[in-house]
Amino acid sequence: MDRRSNPPRIRQTWLRRVFWFATAFMVWVLSSFGLWLYSAYQVSGLLKLSQTDVTSPSKIVDSLASASTHARRVSIFSDLTAIQLATHVPKIGDEISTARTLSHAAGKLSDVLATGATFGKSVYSTNAQDRLFSDGRINLELVEALIAKEPMLAAAINDADWILTHDECSGSLCSQVTDLHKKIEKSKTLLSILEQSMPAIPPALGRGKTSRFLITIGNEAELRASGGAPLSVALLEIDNGYIKVSKMGQISTEIFPGNPKISWQHLMSEPFVSDPLQPIKFVNANMHPDFTIAGEEIVRGWQANGGDTLDGVISIDSTALANVLEQTGPVATPGFGNITGENFKQRMLIDSYRQLSNEGQRQNINNLIGQALISRATSSQFPTVLDALLATAPGRHIQIHMQDVNLQVLISTLHLDGATPDKRAEFGSDLIGLYSKNRNQAKSDVFQKRQIIQHVVLHKDGSADIERIIKVKNDVPPGVSGEGTIGYTTVLNSSYWCSYLPTNAEDVTMLLPDGYPNMALYNNGYQSKLAFTRGGEIKPGAEVSMTLKYRLPAGFIRNERYSVAFGPQPIANPVVLTVTVEYDYGTKSGQIDTLIAEQSMDRYVELSNL
Questions:
Q1: Topology at the third CATH level for domain 424-608
Q2: What is the DSSP letter of 213?
Q3: What is the band of 495 on the pLDDT scale with cuts at 50, 70, 90?
Q4: Which residues of the chain are in CATH 2.60.40.1170 domains?
Q5: Mean pLDDT across the stretch 65-84?
Q6: pTM, 2 dp
Q7: Average pLDDT, the chain
Q8: What residues form the membrane-spanning segments (predicted)?
Q9: CA-based nearest residue to 510, from 518, 522, 498
Q10: Where in the chain is the domain with CATH 3.40.630?
Q11: Preceding omega of 271 cis (within 30 degrees of 0)
Q12: Out of 3, 46, 275, 342, which residue is the most buried by the measure of CB atoms under 10 Å away?
């Protein structure tokens, strides 16, 4: 055999080995990158789901659990040798290094995500032993176990923060590092608040004492500035986690018969009360637009009337109740049919005052619905009721006021405190807030249709001229009867009106319909003034217009950036909002920017031209 033929065979064998080695190497590299990228994709997608799919809380819980698992994996996979070697490859190495930074931070946050999933599963679990609430009792042991994890969560968040702060960042992924860092900073703030409030949570749930919370049912057909008049209430008592309703009924006939005027030390001042001890009825306790004030007034008014000492107030209105019935099913009533989420406002806020023969019959039906709400909230339907209520929170249809300062800070952080826009807006913002109080005991506020059209002209010196046109229509449907000018059955609308504007607003004027009293200005004590008018009447089908004008002084607008915060009053029909900004200087002279156009607004919102 010719030995000269061996070298080609050797070369072929060597080439095959190189080929298979290269193939194996590429499979190894691609597999490493595949596992890493897949886990990173899963974390990103699952976290987006947990933030947006509020219609399916169980999906949120599942997504947090899966995100926790993938966050651990993405951190582990980022340390695979193939990934580490790739950081030295020109051009793409910096991107991979930054991606590894994100991966390591995600790994540190995996325990935080897992704890969120654990809490979520406790709310929605079908297993009574693992459930946060079961058989009329809050699982205090589970609550305390979750509270005990706070130091671990703080350490994990701080570790992730350290990684994002100290690891070098370059390439297109730096923006994601910055975004994650901002979210972690917010998480640290929330965790700091949780750390302060956590010791107060078990006592609030009845550990070592009996806690009492007043639930007020606000009637949006008869408005107070912070929501519907509190015509019905239920007193919840919590003892060692066990919940019971110790008192329930209508204020004027069952709780405080005759609804007398009582004196207490007011937190609110003019224009709502003229004297710090002015006697008022309990049903007027929530006259102030800001529930952080109105909630405290309810507490003081309740106790001044001889009620038990309260740990807090939870205000729920017709919109919130309707959503609960929409999610949990109708309530059958004797002689008045089924009350559903769809027909709740029509039947309870309109028909009941015209079709039921006496006040006692109407109040019995109100009590039936209240009892159904409490029964469902203290049963296996608790998660569904909770979701239904919280879904209405942006419009302030559920508002909470706590007596414990640290718990109130937590409630405010979660935006459940019913605060007006001056409490939430960044410093230097313009303010839009329109609030009314019924003044003729009518149930006609349910027909109100409101529109706010705000036009802003910006000047070179940083000043601005504001024109706010407020339109209110008493949109009574055809066939709805009414009589007289005062009382339950009139369809005449008569209200006080209160508008928010910044403290340093100048040259404030208000053009009002004929017969309306002149506007008066009041300092609200925060970064706001109140433009207040005792108003007048709006006949059925009629619309009135009120035009508020003011000037923001030179220097108020900085770097050409105009910002405005809008806050809603809890009402049956959300405000339709339009805001436009015009420039009268420079290259933008004559330009008009539309920040929002004819949009129904049932939530707090911040708008800006930049």
A1: Immunoglobulin-like (2.60.40)
A2: E
A3: very high
A4: 424-608
A5: 56
A6: 0.84
A7: 85
A8: 20-41
A9: 518
A10: 210-410
A11: yes
A12: 46
Report in angstroms the alpha-carbon separations of 550 from 176, 603, 605: 41, 25, 21
- Crossing angle (nearest 10°) for helices 57-77 and 6-52: 150
Q: Given a cut of 90, is residue 412 above it in pLDDT?
A: yes
Tokens of 536: 């007048």
Looking at residues 436-445, what average pLDDT do you find?
94
Which amino acid, residue 63?
S
**Tokens standing for 232?**
């019905």
For the chain, the straight-line distance linking the first and the last C-alpha, in angstroms and rounded, comes to 85
Give the Cα separation of 334 and 338 in Å (integer): 9
Rg (CA), the chain: 30
- On the question of pLDDT at 595 being above 90, the answer is yes
Helix (H) or strand (E) holding 573: none
- Where does 210-410 sit in CATH, by number? 3.40.630
Rounded distance, CA 282 to CA 261, Å? 7
Report which listed range, 98-107, 240-249, 281-290, is most confident: 281-290
Print the SS3 string covering 520-549: EEEECCCCEEEEEECCCEECCCCEEEEEEE
Task: Give the DSSP letter of residue 395.
Answer: G
Largest Cα span, the chain: 123
Helices 110-124 and 150-166, interaxial angle, to 10°? 140
